[in-house]
Amino acid sequence: TRSTRPQRLLKAVQKHATRGDPQSVISAIDHFCRHSEWAMNVGDEKGSILDSVVSELNPEKVLELGTYCGYSTVRIARLLPPGARLITLEFNADYAAIARQVIAWAGLEDKVQLVEGASEDWIPRMKEHFGIETFDFVFLDHWKDRYLPDTKLMEDCGLLRKGTVLLADNVICPGVPDYLEYVRNGLFYKSCYFKSHLEYTKAEDGLEKSVFLG
Ligand SMILES: O=C(NC/C=C/[C@H]1OC[C@H](O)[C@@H]1O)c1cc([N+](=O)[O-])cc(O)c1O
Ligand SMILES: [Mg+2]
pTM for this one? Predict the structure, then answer.
């Protein structure tokens, strides 16, 4: 039977990227998505904004919602200081299997814990299961109708502290209107928009950076 797009993306990484070299993994995926098959990675343009937010923050505890093939996982983990940890949640088992191999090819498995399952099931278990107090940085890139309920769930579970930064992908395309309203007009966040483009296209999209006020 025909291979899947994530499988073909992984093959491109294994063919063109150097083991243990995260930048070459990022470049191989961007080249594949630009010249072979579009895929829903955050991409190089929004990825540079993601890089600058992570580099400025130097987070110890990071949560990513929506791993997909592990592209943003690699982008974030490559910038983390020694001892820092990234937990990434992926609901789809096939995506998770590909992402594990992409993360391993980049040589970042020691910094990353990939958890298969639903965010609403795992967020309430972060403290007892992973020994997490609070997160310093959260990257939201999973199902768009889960951004708001999962943000409220993280608040309720005490996983956010004063200064925790949420960075949300796709706030224009596909769009997350309920989440945007909450972080921009609610009382709990200081929020700002980084205008960019939908990965590998000319369509507008952007990232919303929201600091929890505690
Ligand atoms: O649905 C998107 N992301 C959510 C992914 C959902 C699926 O992958 C992870 C989750 O477990 C689910 O199986 C998405 C969609 C577009 N798009 O242009 O349609 C662009 C993006 O950057 C996106 O993150
Ligand atoms: Mg996205």
Answer: 0.98
